[in-house]
Write a structure and sequence with these properties.
It contains no helices and 18 strands.
């Protein structure tokens, strides 16, 4: 669930322009990270050519244009995946006149997993929960629970009254990214009889 695979979308008939990730650059791009792209132009007018960059989808680029050198190479620029993506794909396009080339990225989704997924405790006991966040370099979460008490920063749950409670870890990137676990607090039920 952390893949951003670069895919060639369109090439002009003259094949003058090429847009691609830098060699050795991973095509696995998480939310909130970036990947460098390069542009190369071939043929007449390849030097001092202004290449324009555009983007569609939940993404931005570090530059909107670049000027090629005598070898037809424009300065590298970055594809920047949003920290909280609103979609799963985005396309970056380089255009020179009527020629263009595009790269499409599939953006990873932030996922939060909580462990252990279920615990049983007695009143007064504590248990440490941990969260694993994927799809982003920002792994910070805030903890909450429907009962008992939990430290919002550490995930330490303290059992109090008997019941079944939901423990949640929410990514700081947004309320829509969370993972949950169950805490069951057992109690003693019955009637106390006093003897005189």
């Amino acid at each position: 669930d952390s893949l951003a695979t670069a895919t060639r979308v369109s090439r002009s008939a003259r094949d003058r322009i090429e847009l691609e990730p830098l060699p050795g650059t991973s095509t696995t791009v998480n939310a909130g990270t970036s990947a460098p792209l390069r542009v190369r132009v071939a043929g007449n007018g390849m030097a001092n050519a202004t290449v324009n960059y555009s983007v569609s989808g939940p993404v931005s680029v570090s530059s909107t244009s670049g000027v090629t050198n005598e070898n037809g190479e424009a300065p590298t620029f970055n594809y920047i995946a949003p920290a909280n993506p609103s979609g799963t794909t985005a396309t970056v396009t380089a255009t020179l006149g009527s020629d263009q080339d595009s790269v499409t990225f599939t953006i990873s989704t932030v996922q939060v997993r909580v462990s252990p997924t279920s615990v049983s405790l007695s009143p007064g006991q504590t248990r440490q929960f941990t969260a694993t966040v994927t799809g982003t370099p920002n792994t910070a979460v805030v903890w909450s629970a429907t009962g008992g008490a939990i430290d919002p920063g550490t995930g330490v749950f303290s059992a109090s009254a008997p019941g079944t409670y939901t423990v949640r870890a929410t990514s700081v990137l947004g309320a829509g990214f969370f993972g949950e676990a169950t805490a069951v607090v057992a109690g003693v039920s019955g009637q106390l009889t006093l003897l005189y």
